[in-house]
Write a structure and sequence with these properties.
Elements lengths: L1 H15 L6 H8 L3 H12 L3 H4 L2 H6 L4 H23 L5
Helix pairs in contact: 3-6
Length: about 90
């Protein structure tokens, strides 16, 4: 699913050519994928971009490490909360 999401997002960006999907919209779309959040957290927060060859990309990132970590925590808590709400009504 991660590959499909990234390829669909890339296709939308190519077709759109910057008319509708601006930088803030792209950042919001990247929050919909936990793998992209993890990548952005590593590139911006832990300074591993110098080892991955993506120093230029990490330098343009303006999302704070706190927002990225909150996004990752939300990706953990949302499915856990849904599973808890679903299984609390079931008898074992």
């Amino acid at each position: 699913m991660v590959l499909v999401f990234d390829m669909a997002l890339l296709g939308v960006l190519v077709v759109d050519q910057g008319r509708v999907v601006s930088a803030p919209v792209l950042k919001a779309l990247l929050f919909l994928n936990p793998t992209d959040l993890y990548r952005m957290t590593n590139l911006t927060g832990f300074n591993v971009s110098q080892f991955s060859g993506m120093t230029g990309l990490a330098g343009t990132a303006t999302t704070s490490i706190g927002a990225l970590m909150l996004g990752l925590i939300a990706w953990i808590l949302a499915p856990l909360g849904l599973a808890t709400a679903f299984f609390v009504r079931r008898e074992l």
